[in-house]
Amino acid sequence: MQNWEIRNFKKENYVDVARIYQTGIDGRNATFQKIVPTFEEWDQKYLQDCRFVVVEDGVTIGWAALLAFSKMPSYRGVAELSIYIDPEATGKGIGTALMAHIVEESEKAGFWTLQSLIFPENMASIALHNKFGFKTLCVHEKLGEMDGIFRDVALLERRSAIVGK
Q1: CA pair distance 134, 113, nearest whole angstrom
Q2: From the CB of residue 147, how many other CB atoms can be counted at a distance below 10 Å?
Q3: Cα gap 72→113, rounded to integer Å
Q4: Any idea what the Cα angle at residue 120 is, between residues 27 and 47, rounded to 5°?
Q5: How high is the mean pLDDT of the chain?
Q6: What is the pLDDT of residues 63-92, one digit of tens each?
Q7: Predicted confidence (pLDDT) at residue 1 exceeds the cutoff of 70
Q8: What is the pTM of this model?
Q9: Do the beta carbons of residue 60 and residue 54 sit within 8 Å?
């Protein structure tokens, strides 16, 4: 029996969101970022639609949010997905449930394409995305630099079957 639930993000969740984001930075396989953004920076970066957290016993253990792909109106239905799970909470089905939730809610909000940029070494994230119909469009070779090493980044994309037909 699960004892966690998916909720809309609230500002008070940010302390745990930042903690989880820091684990992604520390693991060196989730982001090029080196510093967790302030709440204000995070709030400006992510769209107001489709911000979700997974909460267990009052503690946020996972989060997902969307970033605008472009400010051009023709791309209003395209967004980049960020999804992070607390490493201490893996194996509970949280990633699967959170991904299912954000895909469904993004379609309700009118998004027809979701994209993710993922390090190819992050096999768990790629597997989760593939489970929900994301396809690898390409691998950008040596796209960004981290700790003096240029890293490849896979571009994955999911096209809605119900929005933007």
Answers
A1: 10
A2: 8
A3: 15
A4: 75
A5: 95
A6: 999 999 999 999 999 999 999 999 999 888
A7: no
A8: 0.94
A9: yes
CA–CA distance from 109 to each of 9, 19, 48, 63 (Å)? 16, 28, 11, 18
Type of residue numbered 116: S
| Location of structure tokens 């930075």 | 25
Beta-strand relationship, 113-118 and 59-68: unpaired
Sequential DSSP letters for the chain: ---EEEEE--GGGHHHHHHHHHHHHHHTSS-S-SSPPPHHHHHHHS-SSS-EEEEETTEEEEEEEEEES-SSGGGTTEEEEEEEE-GGGTTSSHHHHHHHHHHHHHHHTT--EEEEEE-TT-HHHHHHHHHTT-EEEEEEEEEEEETTEEEEEEEEEEE-SSS--
Measuring CA to CA, which residue among 20, 38, 35, 34 is closest to residue 82? 20
